[in-house]
Amino acid sequence: MNIVSYRPAPEELSYTFGGRPAIGRIKPGTIVEMYTEDCFGGRVRSVDDLPSSVCDFPYLNPVTGPFHVEGAEPGDTLALHFVSIEPARDWAVSATFPHFGALTGTHATAMLTPPLEEVVWRYDIDVKAGVARYHARKGDFTVELPLDPMHGTVGVAPAASEARMTITPDAHGGNMDTPELRAGVTVYLGVNVEGGLFAVGDGHARQGHGEVCGTAVEAAMNTVVAVELIKGVSTPWPRLEDDAHLMSTGSARPLEDAFRISQHDLVTWAADLTGLDTLDAYQLVSQIGEAPVGNVCDTNYTMLAKIPKAYLGGSAVYESAHERLRALGRRYLAER
């Protein structure tokens, strides 16, 4: 088993997809053990640490990487299987910001109402108990929320030498902020440049669909990813697979277009897998599909389209990459 471990120094964190060289080269079939910092770079540690005071804008939402996958070329697909995602600290934070979030005026939605107050919440993370403890800022209310660790940001370098801020989701991946990106899930990303140059970050101890206030329970993570390369198979938008479901993503503004992109990708993907006519696949997906919401706050919004694999007649997906990577991940966990 080929295992690579990487813990970036603060100055080695990346804030874009594309626009910087790889931090290392790995072969397909490698297990990568990585540390990822939270979206504030670990600088917001208490309720008194306002991001506007302790963070350097626009240096938010750092990712670990990018990693060059040997043999990856445009037109291929990277398969990244999340073997494990574990909070690296016993605390996490969330916040509201002026002019950011789903329920406030923003730069693109101008309002005469006052902007929201900048407020920080600190959560206690108890990995052994499997909970994140919420504490209200005004009053004594507290409640334990189940841990559901996931990564808000994963992606590859965009095409045409473009560099995109990590906060922006698009066809290359990026800050999709879907709780579906948890351990046990394989994400498929189309390769745009030699080596793919994938990176991962923005760990969340848990997050509601939509990330409505603009931040989740933001946490540093110790994450293990199994990497595979599917040659000669393209992927137009990031796709996800777990043991029971297939999922397509779409990121755009307005939200309806993100919805349409994800649904279009899933319908055409289902048609390719089953050999169905496009309209037959459209009818099938319309009756069995779900539409989980990713982020509704960032520069682009993200929607998912999700269907159970059981209704697709046992079609092989990406040469059964998910099954192989899941087996590799289980072997890794058994040998830890």
TrEMBL record:
SUPFAM superfamilies: Acetamidase/Formamidase-like. Gene3D superfamilies: Acetamidase/Formamidase-like domains. This is Acetamidase/formamidase. It comes from Streptosporangium brasiliense. The lineage of its organism: Bacteria, Bacillati, Actinomycetota, Actinomycetes, Streptosporangiales.
